[in-house]
Design brief:
- By secondary structure, this protein is of the alpha+beta class.
- The chain is built from four helices and four strands.
- The protein has a single domain (4-83), classed as Glutaredoxin.
- Helix 1 links the parallel strand 1 and strand 2.
- A four-stranded mixed beta sheet has the order 2-1-3-4, with helices on both faces.
Length: 84
């Protein structure tokens, strides 16, 4: 399984939902709290093209936030991304 990294803030409702979805699937992930970490948020904006959290990476691929993660799960493609 590819490593999963979630850049988040502890108080963000979409971050909480993303974590819950991954935990319900039994997916191990690294949580990186970016609250007040302006350098990492700037880097995320450059790499992922988004300024919002959560920003979720599967391997080295930025997949977006909770909406994109949830859409991958609903379409059945999340498991494929995690495995390939």
């Amino acid at each position: 399984m590819k490593p999963v990294k979630v850049y988040l803030t502890e108080w963000c409702p979409f971050c909480i939902r993303a974590r819950r979805l991954l935990e319900q699937k039994g997916v191990a992930y690294e949580a990186v709290d970016v609250d007040g970490d302006f350098a990492t948020r700037r880097w995320l904006s450059e790499v992922a093209g988004q300024r919002t959290v959560p920003q979720i990476f599967i391997g080295d691929e930025p997949i977006g936030g909770y909406s994109e993660l949830s859409a991958l799960e609903r379409s059945g493609h999340l498991d494929q991304k995690l495995a390939s």
